[in-house]
Amino acid sequence: MEPVAQVAAAAYTLKMDEKRPLARVYLPDGEMLAELFLVSSAHTLTGRDVSCECTPWKVREIEGGVELSAETDSLIWQRKQINLRCYEDRIVYGMTVEGEGTLTDVELLSGFY
Is the CB of residue 101 less than 8 Å from the CB of residue 76? Predict the structure, then answer.
């Protein structure tokens, strides 16, 4: 089984779920602050963006923090990547898609999986 990514920062601890594209954020006292569903959807005129699989999380150091990234499959896009940049006091979420299509709706931290 792949190791579960975890980031311990001054303001929080982020723990990735073993089986789903989900992260739990805990306060320094151990209380759970949030549960984040990490797959987002970027729908187009041709249909819904649905993902079924997510690669294991890659972890790399960046200036001032750590970045976690994973790719998911997509019924619409040729490539779809999720990024979490974890700094001492915040988490920055992003999704990148590559391919062709006219966007209609984007569901961040939500979508079809």
Answer: yes
Residues 54 and 79: their CA atoms lie apart, in Å, by: 12
Q: What is the pLDDT along the chain (113 residues), one digit of tens a residue?
A: 344 688 999 999 999 987 888 999 999 999 999 999 999 999 999 999 999 999 999 999 999 999 999 999 999 999 999 999 999 999 999 999 999 999 999 999 988 78
Strand partners, 46: none
How far is residue 78's CA from residue 65's CA, in Å, rounded to a whole number? 29
The Cα–Cα gap between 104 and 92 comes to 23
Q: Residues with Cβ < 8 Å from 57, sequence gap 6 or more?
A: 5, 16, 68, 69, 70
Burial (0-12, 13-18, 19+ Cβ within 10 Å), 76: buried
How far from chain centre, in Å, is Cα 21?
Answer: 7
